[in-house]
Amino acid sequence: MQMMAPKAVVLLSGGIDSATCAAVARSRGFAVAGLTVDYGQRHRLELEAAAKIASYLKLEAHYVVAVDLRAIGKSALLGSEDVPKDRSEAEISQGIPATYVPARNTILLSLALALAESLGAADIFIGANVLDYSGYPDCRPEFLQTFEKLANLATKAGVEGNTQFRVHAPLLFLTKAEIIRLAISLGVDLSLTMSCYDPTPAGLACGRCDSCQIRRRAFSQTGVPDPTRYVCS
Fold this sequence. Notes:
Blueprint: E1 7-11, H1 16-27, E2 31-38, H2 45-56, E3 61-66, H3 89-92, H4 104-119, E4 123-125, H5 141-153, H6 156-159, E5 166-168, H7 176-185, H8 210-222
Parallel strand pairs: 1-2, 1-4, 2-3, 4-5
Helix pairs in contact: 1-7, 7-8
């Protein structure tokens, strides 16, 4: 008798990290449900990218939930101020930037937890990373460990003892270059991903925001051609 694959929910934003995270979950034998959150982000092309990635990876399901954070939060990613551009590597690595969205990962993980409990899944994957990002507090291992404890205290499935929720962040301590190499080894089509915080309506990446700079530098380090179409070369 063939055993059914365990279920997992993967937060799927449309970028390199989340696409790689979904591929990692599949490689570990999970039946993956992708969850994309439309939170009012100005870089809305990432929603289209997430749908393409879910189709390409043949995920079991792809859910899209709308929670407009513009009503309660301020961030460059929500359009309340300009996206920082042309910052140096030193500037990118210091402090919490204007692209921080208040409590975003707490909200996204809570939605993933709700979906996981509804589906009977015990495992949640998130593409959080502490090496190549600008000090976002909700990407730290302490936060993820604490959220996992919350998941098992604040759910019916966790309290009744039927489920032990686990939060996986397989990319947490990888550089962006290492993530790209992992993605390629898992067969991820990186041309489908969108990293830019301020793309043009035609889908061109600005090439100047923090995320674009990190992406371009990582592709250069790997020697792999960057499939991204940039406004500036």
